TrEMBL record:
Gene Ontology terms describing biological process: amino acid metabolic process; carboxylic acid metabolic process
Name listed for the protein in its UniProt record: Tyrosine decarboxylase 2
Gene name in the database record: TYRDC-2
InterPro entries xrefs: Aromatic_deC (IPR010977), PyrdxlP-dep_de-COase (IPR002129), PyrdxlP-dep_Trfase (IPR015424), PyrdxlP-dep_Trfase_major (IPR015421)
Cofactor(s) essential for the protein: pyridoxal 5'-phosphate
Family note: Belongs to the group II decarboxylase family.
Keyword annotations from UniProtKB, A to Z: Decarboxylase, Lyase, Pyridoxal phosphate
Record keyword Lyase present: yes
Molecular function (Gene Ontology), one example: carboxy-lyase activity
Cellular component annotations (GO), alphabetically ordered: cytoplasm
Keyword Lyase: yes
Amino acid sequence: MGSLPVSTFKPLDIKALLEEIPVMAAFIADYYKDIETYPVRSHVEPGYLHRLLPYSAPGFPELLTTILDDVRNDILPGLTHWQSPKFFAYFQTNASNPGILGEMLCAALNVPRPNSMDWMAKFLRLPREFTFAGGGGGVIHGSTCEAVVCTMAAARDAALARIGFEGITRLVIYASDQTHFTFQKASKLVGIPPANFRVITEIDQNLYIRND
């Protein structure tokens, strides 16, 4: 069993890349230009894509225009359009020109993570020890939920290092009633008993937990 000939296997074809980037950019631009015309929430049943897409991935390449037609006709109807001006839910809109272009660059080159994380720490006015330059550091997660689980796991391990790992049932999490439900889910994932998640309803005018 050998490799495919180079002439038929070109995962990075510069000529094709230069032709396809404008097509993809136009698709993304049209989506955001027309986003108000879509229902904010999907009107499809869970699992609907199983009836529309092939059972397995295509065995041969497809034209980018064909793929984008599938996205437009089959996938967009199943989305919740977070970037819509009609979307009023847990998270703010987060698309931007720098964000989209930065994702393209990261996909091509990777990202200078330590520098980016130190910039973020300074933006949040965190102490220097939270930065790579100060002996700390961080990581960019794929989602907020993923970051919450990682943060709780780190807090759990720090506490158990002091009291012993058999003391996990003694750990308690305090959160305001304004906290996203992700935190309760994350506490279960890291082994904190559900009864030890304490919801605090006493908050001040800035929605901070009162410590009195």
